[in-house]
Amino acid sequence: MLLYEFRVVLPMEVEEYQRAQLYSVAEASKNETGGGEGIEVMQNEPFDMTGLKEGDEAYQDLSAAGKTFKTGQFTNKTYHLASKVPRFIRILAPKGALEINEKAWNAYPYCRTLISNPEYMKENFYIVIESMHIADNGHSENVHNLSEKDLAIRQVVNIDIAADVSRSDYKEEWDPKLYKSSLTGRGPLNAPNWKDTVKPVMCAYKLVRVHFKWWGLQNKVEKLIQKQEERLFTNFHRQVFCWTDKWYPLTMNDIRELEEKTKEELDQARVHGEVKGMVVKD
């Protein structure tokens, strides 16, 4: 198993990021859906684990930074993939195996996401992403309360949204070095040490555990998945910042209405148009 902790510093308040993230997830979902592929939202509803304990079917351990979270929003999604995975996996995988399930318990500022392939890989494949959002610039060393054993194998990756992007993913409208918010005055992030000087500031600490048990491919695929997670987190958070003027005026009620509308749009988009979004080039 590989254990990576990605740290993404952002020029915003922790409270603001909740709306920013949910808005951007909805928009990014539309950018990744079309031509028979993309995201299907099956559930999006509140959850409450008050009174549940370890061993109960619905129990999840939602804890970080010395806190335990019991309530929030639960989502259940299916990702219909093909161009999103390398060709060698498409060749090896049987029909239907490239559908990935994502369950997320968003107890903001903490969120736990479980990604799996229950129909084919079952317990041989899963990704667990634990996200904790704190008002600092990425220097907290053990936000996720890792054991000494986990700390020994954890690899920390600091993502600079203003600098770290591949040439193939670059889009001028999502460049934090060029963007300035007219509503907040934030940006552009063109100073080399912007993470140390910007106000307000927060960090998304995203701990990613990858398990892929397939003889001969395990190490290669686990490294590939972690690399794709880094690419996804980088591109997504560049969008989050450059969409500031779109999400900043919204309330949480506005966000929930947007999510419902987006679900309907995704259902239509999956059966029309062309494949869109972040594909894996063979």
From TrEMBL:
<dbReference type="Pfam" id="PF02121">
    <property type="entry name" value="IP_trans"/>
</dbReference>
<dbReference type="InterPro" id="IPR023393">
    <property type="entry name" value="START-like_dom_sf"/>
</dbReference>
<dbReference type="InterPro" id="IPR001666">
    <property type="entry name" value="PI_transfer"/>
</dbReference>
<dbReference type="GO" id="GO:0008525">
    <property type="term" value="F:phosphatidylcholine transporter activity"/>
</dbReference>
<dbReference type="InterPro" id="IPR055261">
    <property type="entry name" value="PI_transfer_N"/>
</dbReference>
<dbReference type="GO" id="GO:0035091">
    <property type="term" value="F:phosphatidylinositol binding"/>
</dbReference>
<dbReference type="GO" id="GO:0008526">
    <property type="term" value="F:phosphatidylinositol transfer activity"/>
</dbReference>
<feature type="domain" description="Phosphatidylinositol transfer protein N-terminal">
    <location>
        <begin position="1"/>
        <end position="264"/>
    </location>
</feature>
<dbReference type="GO" id="GO:0005737">
    <property type="term" value="C:cytoplasm"/>
</dbReference>
<dbReference type="GO" id="GO:0031210">
    <property type="term" value="F:phosphatidylcholine binding"/>
</dbReference>
<protein>
    <recommendedName>
        <fullName>Phosphatidylinositol transfer protein N-terminal domain-containing protein</fullName>
    </recommendedName>
</protein>
